[in-house]
Design a protein that fits this description.
The chain is of the alpha+beta class. It has one domain: Creatinase/methionine aminopeptidase superfamily (Creatine Amidinohydrolase), CATH 3.90.230.10. Helix content is 28%, strand content 26%. It is built from four helices and 15 strands. A five-stranded antiparallel sheet has the order 8-7-9-14-15. A hairpin with a 2-residue loop joins strand 14 and strand 15. The chain starts with 6 loop residues before the first helix and ends in an 8-residue tail after the last strand. The relative contact order is 0.19. The chain binds magnesium ion (2 copies). The site of one magnesium ion has 5 residues, from loops. One magnesium ion binds next to loops.
Length: 253
């Protein structure tokens, strides 16, 4: 069942979202060649805890860290490690959740380490744009399929592919709630959008094929063909006054 939120609950989600977004900004400041993904995870956890919040991902289904950090052809759910060191030219995906006053925020960004290839830059840009194409379809009376279709068309028009095996989700008191929010779909199909819905919209986009697989660590998801993948996620709330992006604290990013 879809849990609709009232305005007080959406205000609480704005606070959780702000902490989530700020944790990503703190991590962005630290991204450079030579830093380990474990160090990035530590600054994220410390920031979230300093705010009086809890990292949503720590211990979630046994996940051992506060952020998922995935490099290059890793799509999502990378486990931070002191042995994973960022290199010039990498693209790194950082996915963060914060739980505060009973509600979650969930947000991800893909960050270039130093200068990256033109194709990698374009991938990051198109993935971000596709999120906003999805948000443009988040309107009372539209359907989940309108949102997914907008994302998919933007990505495929750019010559990239949308990962279909992993999708966005409702979010609120639980990190993952109904409804499913695929990054693909048919316009006019699926659950109807209405005021009080809170969704994590999160396109995952590959340069090559959409095929992905999970590593034996039980978490890390990689592209089958080894091509680069990007991820962009925010938590959004549909209200009677329109859409609020709870985790967007730097409107340029
Ligand atoms: Mg996430
Ligand atoms: Mg999510």
């Amino acid at each position: 069942m879809i849990q609709l939120k009232n305005s007080a609950q959406i205000s609480a989600m704005l606070e959780a979202g702000r902490i989530t977004g700020e944790a990503l900004l703190v991590a962005r400041e630290r991204v450079r060649e030579g830093i380990s993904t474990k160090e990035l995870d530590t600054v994220i956890r410390e920031y979230i805890e300093k705010c009086g919040a809890k990292p949503s991902f720590l211990g979630y289904n046994g996940f051992p860290a506060s952020a998922c950090i995935s490099i290059n052809d890793e799509v999502i759910h990378g486990i931070p490690s002191k042995n994973r060191i960022l290199k010039e030219g990498d693209i790194v995906k950082i996915d963060v959740g914060a739980f505060y006053k009973g509600f979650h925020g969930d947000s991800a960004r893909t960050i270039a380490v130093g200068s990256v290839s033109e194709e990698a830059s374009r991938l990051i840009k198109v993935t971000r744009e596709s999120f906003f194409c999805g948000v443009a379809a988040v309107k009372t009376g539209n359907r989940i399929g309108d949102l997914g279709n907008s994302i998919q068309r933007h990505v495929e028009d750019a010559g990239f592919s949308v990962v279909k095996k992993y999708i966005g989700h409702g979010i609120g008191r639980a990190l993952h709630e109904s409804p499913d929010v695929p990054n693909f779909g048919t316009a006019g199909r699926g659950a109807r959008l209405c005021s009080g819905m809170t969704l994590a919209i999160e396109p995952m986009v590959n340069i090559g094929s959409e095929e992905v697989y999970e590593l034996p660590d039980g978490w890390t998801v990689k592209t089958r063909d080894g091509s680069l993948s990007a991820h962009y996620e925010n938590t959004v709330a549909l209200t009677s006054e329109g859409v609020i992006i709870t985790t967007l604290v730097d409107s340029e990013w």
